[in-house]
Design a protein that fits this description.
The complex is a heterodimer of chains A (310) and B (314).
Chain A (H helix, E strand, L loop, with lengths): L1 H7 L2 H7 L7 H37 L5 H5 L12 H32 L4 H14 L3 H15 L1 H4 L4 H25 L3 H9 L4 H29 L3 H5 L24 H9 L4 H31 L4
Helix pairs in contact in A: 3-14, 5-9, 5-11, 5-13, 7-9, 9-11, 10-11, 11-14, 13-14
Chain B lengths: L11 H5 L4 H43 L2 H6 L14 H33 L2 H16 L2 H19 L8 H25 L3 H9 L4 H12 L1 H17 L2 H6 L17 H10 L7 H31 L5
Helix pairs in contact in B: 2-13, 4-7, 4-10, 5-7, 6-7, 7-10, 8-9, 10-13, 12-13
Classes of the chains: A mainly alpha (310), B mainly alpha (314).
Chain lengths: 310, 314
């Protein structure tokens, strides 16, 4: 029987009889090496740019990095220009944004994950959140300009800190919601069932059992969301944050309504001036901003590592 | 405590065992309603965006015919002789975005492959946070880098390059969106089960053949989704192009001259003092609406693509 014969033949004989079959191992291995080198090159290019960027900013900004940068108000004179009002403005914005976005984002996250999972309402909101992630941040600025600056002017006082913080809140709420849901999902469901079996209501279980365990994860997501907000420039420009602010907002409810500036806006202002001395100030400002960012990210990573238990 | 006391007499100890269940139920309901309202904020945000953009765009189109808006070749809304050809801005956005994604897509995808298949665990621990930092750098910092580091270097090579140009802004923007492509593609690559790879190795494929022939098609929907998100990020990116590409409305695809993207125009008007309600002021909403329509279209396409081509593995 011929079929039996052919299956008993040694394998290499099959390949020898088929002249079209070519292992071409050396050519294939060569392409393998090229591909591996290309993929390593891509990562190395990306990280080299990061290092070059940081070194460039460091070299440019070092001469200007002194106490006057933080203690002086903006000035027409590059030597005396500082970012005191910008730093204070950024702190105000971050504190307010955190106060607004934490309850809203965490509450919405709890609702979507614990109370309304797999309902049509939750699905609509999920699609919405995915959509909002792709909306350019400057569009949020236009939304803030219309709603918080113009429509809600009696409350926000127009182009004030409150309008800025509310705009940033809308921008980062989707991030907080997603982080909250992930943190809640990581809590084992046996804990919830144990609580429910003892007669607690779902909210009691969440408040007493689930939230304490999910809290580090939520906090990490919150810090990462704020570190996104701290570098946002475009939406604040769109709602009309000023660049020349030579006073600090009073620590009172009226302070919420005062015009403001923030660090990225101050940096933008310095970069867009023609004098070269202002570029140095911009680089020094970037260093301050990057240090703040690294501190926030470092805290987030530290928290994540501290509490990675289950 | 117990002798002689009838069941109707409540001792303090017994009362402790009567939790206020009605109150708890009301708290439960209240929490659900309040948190449900919080969740509705995302829907309200979407409605708010559409509403504000459309409300301010309608009066604009009552003054400027749609044909002029689409087919005029000049964009001079702040001049006395105002012209409103949106394609001047769209061409600039297109130009910078194309340059950016030419950098970001191949480098991002190759980085994802390197992280998932080539980098050993020890290297991954350093490379991934590095890319995360790159993703976290504020865009204004990239703008500074493009204007004051990349442009001067490019100008020594390319004579006739203007101080503000689309090339330098696009290249740096490509680096800025690279980490997003890398991390989303890597997630997609991770979702391809290892049994598929082992099967391919078993029939004698090399590592590259496994990646390009098995892993890549298996992760295609996720990779394409990451590409589309990157494109939509490039289209909406603001500060890099504002700082480094200039604010000169120019109907051109020449990457060496100053152009004004849609986002840069919005910033330009926001910084100036166009009085509220004027036609120039309304243009930022019209440009914003155009921008929103473009990114929304990309996003809807991405949803459709993922749903149509997603491979389901157990």
């Amino acid at each position: 029987m011929t079929t039996q014969n052919s299956s008993q033949r040694p394998q290499n004989q099959v390949f020898q009889e088929n002249p079209n079959f070519d292992f071409a191992l050396s050519r294939r291995r060569k392409w393998d090496r090229i591909f591996a080198i290309a993929s390593w090159t891509a990562v190395i290019i990306a990280l080299t740019v990061l290092v070059v960027l940081l070194v460039d900013v460091f070299i440019d900004g070092l001469p200007r990095l002194d106490w006057t940068l933080l203690s002086e108000f903006p000035s027409r004179l590059p030597k005396r220009a500082g970012m005191k009002s910008a730093l204070v403005g950024t702190i105000w914005l971050m504190v307010l944004t955190a106060i607004f976005s934490f309850p809203l984002g965490v509450g919405a996250g709890i609702f979507l994950e614990e109370f309304a999972a797999d309902t049509w309402y939750a699905k609509v909101i999920e699609v919405n959140i995915a959509n909002l992630a792709a909306v350019p941040s400057i569009i949020y600025g236009l939304l803030g300009l219309s709603v918080f600056v113009r429509v809600m002017e009696p409350i926000t006082g127009g182009r004030g800190i409150l309008a800025g913080a509310l705009t940033l809140t809308l921008l980062i709420i989707p991030i907080v919601i997603v982080a909250t849901r992930e943190a809640l999902r990581a809590v084992p469901s046996s804990l919830r069932q144990a609580g429910l079996a003892l007669g607690a209501t779902p909210w009691q279980v969440i408040r007493e059992q689930v939230l304490p365990l999910a809290f580090p994860g939520i906090l990490t997501g919150m810090i990462l969301a704020l570190s996104r907000a701290i570098g946002e420039t475009a939406p604040l420009i769109a709602i009309g944050a000023l660049t020349f602010i030579a006073f600090l907002p009073p620590l009172s409810p009226e302070g919420l309504q005062t015009p403001f500036t923030a660090m990225p806006i101050q940096i933008f202002n310095w970069v867009s001036r023609p004098q070269e001395e202002f570029y140095t100030a911009a680089a020094a400002g970037i260093m301050v901003l990057m240090v703040l960012l690294l501190l926030m990210n470092g805290t987030a990573i530290w928290l994540r590592n501290q509490f990675q238990k289950f | 405590m117990n002798t002689g006391s009838s069941p109707s007499q409540h001792s303090p100890r017994n009362q402790m065992w009567k939790p206020n269940r009605t109150l708890n139920k009301w708290v439960q309901r209240g929490v659900i309603v309040v948190f449900g309202l919080f969740a509705s904020i995302s829907v309200l945000t979407t409605f708010g965006i559409v509403l504000t953009l459309v409300v301010d765009a309608i009066p604009f189109f009552q003054e400027v015919p749609l044909a002029d808006f689409l087919f005029d070749t000049e964009w001079t809304p702040l001049f006395n002789d105002a012209r409103f050809g949106i394609f001047v801005l769209i061409s600039a956005t297109f130009l910078t975005s194309v340059i950016a994604i030419t950098v970001a897509l191949p480098l991002g995808l190759l980085s994802a492959i390197c992280l998932s298949d080539y980098a050993p665990q020890r290297a991954r621990r350093w490379l991934k946070p590095g890319l995360e930092i790159l993703a976290g750098v504020p865009t204004i910092v990239y703008g500074y880098f493009a204007l004051l580091f990349v442009t001067p270097i490019l100008r020594t090579f390319i004579p006739g390059m203007e101080p503000f140009n689309a090339l330098s802004a696009g290249l740096v923007m490509g680096i800025a969106i690279l980490p997003m492509v890398a991390s989303l593609s890597e997630d997609a690559i991770y979702a391809v089960p290892s049994t598929l790879r082992q099967g391919a190795y078993a029939v004698g494929a090399t590592k590259r053949e496994v990646i390009t022939g098995v892993v890549f098609p298996g992760a295609l929907s996720g990779i394409v989704a990451s590409f589309i998100l990157a494109i939509s990020r490039a289209v909406g990116e603001t500060m890099i192009v504002t700082v480094a590409a200039g604010q000169n409305p120019n109907l051109t695809l020449n990457p060496l001259v100053s152009v004004a993207t849609m986002t840069a125009y919005i910033v330009q008007v926001s910084l100036g003092d166009a009085p509220a309600g004027s036609l120039a002021y309304k243009t930022i909403y019209v440009v914003g609406l155009t921008l929103f329509v473009i990114t929304l279209t990309l996003n809807v396409f991405s949803f459709w693509f993922v749903r149509r081509f997603q491979q389901k593995y157990e």
